[in-house]
Design goal:
This protein is of the alpha/beta class. It has two domains: 238 residues, Type I PLP-dependent aspartate aminotransferase-like (Major domain) (Aspartate Aminotransferase, domain 2), CATH 3.40.640; 118 residues, Aspartate Aminotransferase, domain 1 (Alpha-Beta Complex). α1 packs antiparallel against α9 and α10 runs parallel beside α14. 48% of the residues are buried.
Length: 377
């Protein structure tokens, strides 16, 4: 990258780790056959796919046959929601989720509502945190699935998944969590979380785009989204890519080492301290102050336009909490659900750090933002 370019948008997508790239190259060299084939050319591809499945399963702490490879997190979320719904069409269906989910959960829920399902979108507080008692009160005899994200992609707030999953178990309701943002940042062992379904997105965890996985606890009924051959235990038709599954397996091997996240958290916190020292009460932290992903810093520059600020920080890759369409500012649905005022929400910028982010890079960003403060003072 150009020395003037600094990447702080790891929640949007991560670069491919060199070890992951090497695993992909090896699979490309040896795994060109169809993994479902009966002959010698198929064996290397099949071995790669199944080895990768074991790597993902080891990372999550489950059985290999409980892993379904998908094209990414969005397909995994769709498969979980629609798969459970269409597998249970013999009764009226009620689904529970939250107002701050990723669109790949909220949009399928809206689709299922058009098919006749009833959907409850639970509220969150001003830090983006769900109250488990709200979930307990929302469950009915018709509830067929609960889907609550592990950690929010915009503000980083970590939901009390283990507590919520226990509530679901007490009522005999399957529980799904979208763990796209939490993989490699916080623990995601399925037994500790107590969930039935869990989604992974490769490109959020130093693998390439185009690969993901859904954990499906043994015994969980699921109707396939994609019908065809009997791939993935009959749960997802389509010839598996040895190259892409190898990438996800290698990425999960790296994600199991969370030691680096302590350093990322310290760097993130120093970043916030520097911004707060410069801007005082003109900068606001969005998200939970403690129960938050170690790499995520979503802040609002009060009274300013976050998109305009980011444009002025040319070369710094980050995300904003609002969008401008035809002169109208459209606020982030997540910040709206948190009841963040428009004056604060329109100034939101999300900085998300990664394993390779350096103290020098953060110092440069702080310096650039300081210059903007002088301009707006």
């Amino acid at each position: 990258m150009n020395s003037d370019r600094i990447y702080l948008d790891y929640n949007a997508s991560t670069p491919v780790d060199p070890g992951v790239a090497q695993a992909m190259r090896s699979a490309t060299d040896d795994g060109y056959g169809n993994p479902s084939g009966p002959h010698w050319a198929a064996m290397p591809a099949k071995d790669t796919v199944e080895r990768s499945r074991r790597q993902v399963a080891t990372f999550l702490g489950c059985m290999p046959e409980e892993i379904v490879f998908t094209s990414g997190g969005s397909e995994a979320n769709n498969l979980a929601l629609k798969g459970v719904y269409f597998a249970r069409t013999g009764r009226r269906a009620h689904l529970i989720t939250t107002q701050v989910e990723h669109p790949s959960v909220l949009s399928p829920c809206a689709f299922l509502a058009r098919q006749g399902a009833r959907v409850t979108n639970l509220p969150v507080d001003g830090t983006g945190l769900l109250d488990p008692d709200d979930l307990r009160r929302a469950i009915t005899r018709e509830t067929v699935l609960i889907s609550i994200m592990h950690a929010n992609n915009e503000v980083g707030t970590i939901q009390p998944i283990a507590e919520c999953a226990q509530i679901a178990r007490d009522h005999g309701v399957p529980f799904h969590t979208d763990a796209a943002q939490s993989v490699g940042k916080i623990p995601t062992r399925v037994a500790a979380l107590g969930i039935d379904l869990l989604s992974i997105a490769g490109h959020k965890a130093y693998a390439p785009k185009g690969i993901g996985a859904l954990y499906v606890r043994n015994g969980t009924r699921l109707e396939p989204l994609i019908h065809g051959g009997g791939h993935e235990g009959g749960r997802r038709a389509g010839t598996e890519s040895a190259m892409l599954t190898a990438a996800l397996g290698a990425a999960c091997g790296l994600a199991g080492d969370l030691a680096a996240m302590a350093g990322v958290r310290r760097l993130r916190d120093r970043f916030w301290d520097a911004l707060h020292a410069q801007w005082g009460d003109r900068v606001v932290l969005n998200g939970h102050p403690d129960q938050r992903l170690p790499n995520t810093l979503n802040v609002s520059f009060v009274g300013l336009n976050g998109a305009a600020m980011l444009a002025a920080l040319d070369g710094i890759a980050a995300s904003t909490g609002s969008a401008c369409h035809s002169g109208q500012i459209e606020l982030s649905p997540v910040l709206r659900a948190m009841n963040i005022s428009k004056d604060v929400a329109k100034g939101a910028v999300r900085f998300s750090l990664g394993r390779s982010t350096t103290a020098g890079e953060i110092a440069k960003v702080v310096e650039r933002i300081s210059a903007l403060r002088i301009m707006h003072s």
